[in-house]
Design goal:
Layout (H helix, E strand, L loop, with lengths): L3 H5 L9 H12 L4 H11 L4 H15 L14
């Protein structure tokens, strides 16, 4: 199942690797308030609260995978 937030923010389902797409995503997000974006997606109906909850659970699981994003550490300082 595709990540509904990634899809709603213009993510490509054809993307072969989420880690390859991550730097581009971070570049697009630079200077933006993520909470404001999420609130806009929910209020527009593009993403439901249930979808947001699901993605937040997935993010918590990813955070527990040591080293997965290590190569990006310090990239956006």
């Amino acid at each position: 199942m595709a990540n509904p937030l990634f899809k709603a923010m213009g993510g490509n389902q054809q993307s072969t690797n989420m880690l390859e797409a991550f730097p581009k995503f971070m570049q697009q997000m630079r200077g933006k308030d993520p909470n404001e974006i999420l609130n806009g997606l929910i209020s527009s109906g593009k993403v439901s609260q249930q979808q947001l909850d699901m993605v937040q659970r997935q993010a918590q699981q990813i955070q527990q995978m040591p080293g997965m994003f290590e190569k990006f550490k310090g990239m956006f300082k």
